[in-house]
Amino acid sequence: AQKITQTQPGMFVQEKEAVTLDCTYDTSDPSYGLFWYKQPSSGEMIFLIYQGSYDQQNATEGRYSLNFQKARKSANLVISASQLGDSAMYFCAMRERGNTDKLIFGTGTRLQVFP
Amino acid sequence: SQTIHQWPATLVQPVGSPLSLECTVEGTSNPNLYWYRQAAGRGLQLLFYSVGIGQISSEVPQNLSASRPQDRQFILSSKKLLLSDSGFYLCAWSVSGRASAGELFFGEGSRLTVL
Questions:
Q1: What does the mean pLDDT of chain A come to?
Q2: Cα-Cα end-to-end distance for chain A
Q3: Which positions in chain B touch A43 (Cβ < 8 Å)?
């Protein structure tokens, strides 16, 4: 069965510094997708970045990059130059194969950025 | 552009009362639709998904049901709420087929408190 693990319940980072949020996954499917979402205190889930299992390069979106290590089954999110507005819950997710694109989510990491 | 809206945003209901949460998507056709629940301080659990009108798949046995009476409308219901139904409910949609990475786009969420 597919599984997503986020072992860091909380992380602190100083403004303007970089931070890495860990995510490991388990799947026997050779084709899968990995996602990161941000959930601010308002509750809405905001899509940040996507990595396909066959993508040769690590995904990047602005200050977000995904450190994809396929052999280790890890897909860590790197946020560069942290901002106070980055304080939120961050969820890693994986897409199951099939027509429905169901995502399974990790338990999340709460990031707090301090001045 | 596509938008997703769900309501009500906040709901306080007594045990044993009925529930209806509604979600609509605009700007796209034949989306895949999803209901997720997030318990306090935890990750997202998929409750239902739908690939078309009248087609509902349940992921976990529970006190809730879902319906899709129209292409872009998804409703979460219960005849008699339990205390354990309390949580944050998120509706989401994705592009059907393999035309996209399969990312989910979420609504604003509905916070349900059962007393």
A1: 93
A2: 41
A3: 88, 90, 108-109, 111
